[in-house]
Design goal:
436 residues, mainly beta
Amino acid sequence: MLICIVPASQMYSEKVLVSGLYYNLDDADNTAEVTYQNQEHSSSYVTGNLVIPSEVIFNDISYQVTSIGERSFIYCTELKSVTIPDGVTSIGDYAFCACIALTNITLPEGLTSIGYYAFSSCQGLTSITIPESVTSIGGNAFTSCSGLTSITIPDGVSIMGDCQFSGCSNLTSITIPAGLTSIGNDAFWGCRGLTSITIPEGVTSIGNNAFRDCRGLTSITIPEGVTSIGNNAFWDCRGLTSITIPEGVTSIGDHSFCDCIALTNITLPKGLTSINDYTFQSCNKLTSITIPNSVTSIGTGAFYGCSSLTSITIPRSVTSIGSAAFCACRGLTSVISYIADPFNLKKDCFYYIHGDATLYIPAETTNLYETSGWTQYFAHVVEMEPMPTNIEECCGSSESSVTTRYDMQGRRISKPAKGINILQMSDGTTLKVMVK
């Protein structure tokens, strides 16, 4: 059963029936608004193919139709097509909500606003052309239009409201305008037909659940201007294989990439301050991730069940790790911690990791790591030699000779190893060299 929850209607001084439709008439400017019969009985009697006239005549006075009022055709379950005339500038809240047989609607040029839930649950609607004149589209406007396959949002729209296309399970193509600044909560939740989407450069925030359960989504580019990603934003995007989060992002919400089971690679920004609860839970193909030096906290269950993760480096900036943060990371064999004064770990932090895992810690900190509960999860604990300081970037060779060589984890190595090597030179300099 389809249910649309609607607010109490606005009261009008005059409501008339003309040629089978109800109108609110405004004698001040001779305009008419299409409306419903009464609070208990909307225009559900309207069926078939409807052409709304551009003007109505009542008591020998002509009124121009300028708006489709709220709830005008809610639950018109046998309404098949609608033509809205030129001159109409607004479509009210819930206007065509739950018109499940509606397959075609023509919107006029000059339309400027589409209200909340205006076309919600119009399951038979496969496409709709929104005129370029539209600047405002209310939240939930197209929620659960499960037959909708493509849509273009006009350039004048700057904000995508909450739940605007949630439940549009067959939507495969959408064009988002360049002027958009935010993507609202639940905007594309359950759009399983979407395989890719381009977010405009002007967008600064991605709301909670924005792309949740978009299981067909394989790629997405987050623009540089984005600073926040909401809770559950990409939860259960099972086709997503890689994603780069721009440098401006400082906050990623809880469960943001939870159950992204195809995700193998993700790049976190250098300014990120926290990895929140369950952010990467059950990303079981994630093999590596670099935690930036700016991160101070790793939340509860942040990497729970990332069974393909083999190594993780915890920077010295981290001051807290939540319960079960790395629990059930069964492939995790190497944890490198640069925390000099380790804090007490919460329950089950590294529970069920690889049975032969090694914890690498700073020199002369073994006792501290034992008393704070870290070492109980590991088969081996190895103290790293002190890392050299004053490292210079280098991509070539030096005329002086190499005296000591380290890998990026601070471990001394006897010969060049693929990747970045840190070299202490005979002339007293320290170089960072890429070995291919």
